[in-house]
Structure formats: structure tokens, C-alpha cells
Amino acid sequence: MCGIVGVLGDHEVAPILVEALKRLEYRGYDSAGIATVNNGQLDRRRAVGKLANLSDLLVHDPLAGKSGIGHTRWATHGAPSIINAHPHRAGPVAVVHNGIIENFRELQTELTERGVAFQTDTDTETIALFAQVHMADGTDPVTAAFRALDKLKGTFAVAFLFDGEEDLIVAARKGSPLAIGYGDGEMFVGSDAIALAPLSSRITYLKEGDLAIRPDINTLCPKKSLNSPAF
After folding, report:
1. Which of the residues 16, 34, 112, 226 has the least number of beta carbons within 10 Å of its own beta carbon?
2. How many domains does the chain have?
3. What CATH number is given to the structural domain containing 169?
4. 228 is a domain residue
5. CA nearest 122: which of 27, 42, 2, 26?
6. List of E strands, 66-184
7. Beta bridge partner(s), residue 158
8. How many Cβ atoms are within 10 Å of 25's Cβ, its own excluded?
């Protein structure tokens, strides 16, 4: 079962993300990765195997930034590999995902008909690609994420990070738990309270179908149902 973490804060986020992912190791995983935004630039690092491999990679190829998302993957669609490891990126969008997108074959067909090329064997990539398609049409990141989520059928917890947006994470929960932690000038997202416990003493779980946006310190707004009409 995959694990998700996300941090928007005041400190270098890479080590915080890795430590939070370690607290999710009990779920099992075969690869791991993180993405950050630093000086407006989105970047990521991924590794197959234990988190120690990701930690070693970050020593030799550091990833700066005070906002980021991380993921431990248990392969379902696509073999364990760096290419299939999360976070998945499509242009200005990075995504981490826990769950199964039941209609991803149909989504792949729709994207292929639009001339979009795939880089991975995963269902998750379709989420990032749909968000990228909408952003390429001039849609703002939040609305692009909502429109991508509206396409999905299945169970999932998802977190988005965007190029040029150092204080924004969009998160959503449908069927898979997702917790929000409140800090002093910081916000956290995690698959469960265990991941966030050392970071925050104020933790709540998103309700089924909730979407959460964090554009401002200590603010989650608005929440919209995934069952609401498409934007």
C-alpha cells in the first residue's frame, strides 16, 4: 500500500519528507521519491528499493526547497523502476497517488487521441497528464487539478505540486485516507497520522470526497466534493 507525504513549511523539506516516508515503511514499498519547488522550479528525485537508496541519491544530488511531496510505491500498474516511481511529473505538475484508477485505460485512450505521449506504465501518470493538458490551455493550477480529479473513477488519495507555486499543494481523498497536519506557519499532508505525528499535534482527516487547497499559511480552502459537477 503506497504512502504519501506533503510539506509546505519554513525549512528545507527533503530530509523532512524522507523521515516522514520512513514512518510509512510498514505499508510496504518497492520504490520511493520526492519532488520539491525551489525558487519556483519543480524538480524530483526517485530511487528503486529501500529509502536508504533515495537518501544516498539525495546526498550526491541534493534537492532544495521548502515545499514538497513524497511517496513510497507498492507496484500495481507497472514494474518497480525509476520510471514508474512517484512523484510522476508532466511538465509543470507533479503528482503522488495512493489507490487504483479503475478507468485509467480509457483515460490513456483519451489522452493518446489528444496526441499526448506516455512515459510510464502506471495509472497515476494519467492524473498528471490531464492536469498538464488543462494548464497548457491556460487553466490555473488549482482548477486544472480539480478537472483532472473529476476524470477519475476508483479509490485514491492524491497530492499535487506545481512549478512556480512554492506555497501550494492540492490534495484529494476518495476511498483512501489522507490526513492534514497544522503547524506553526507550516502545513502537512500524509497517508495517516503516523507519518505526521512528529510534525504536528493538530491532525485531521479529510472526509470522503474532500478536496483541500493550501494557498495561504494555516488555511485549507475551499473544500469541494469530488461528486460535484465538473468545473
Report:
1. 112
2. 1
3. 3.60.20.10
4. no
5. 2
6. 67-73, 88-90, 93-101, 154-162, 169-174, 179-182
7. 97, 172
8. 13
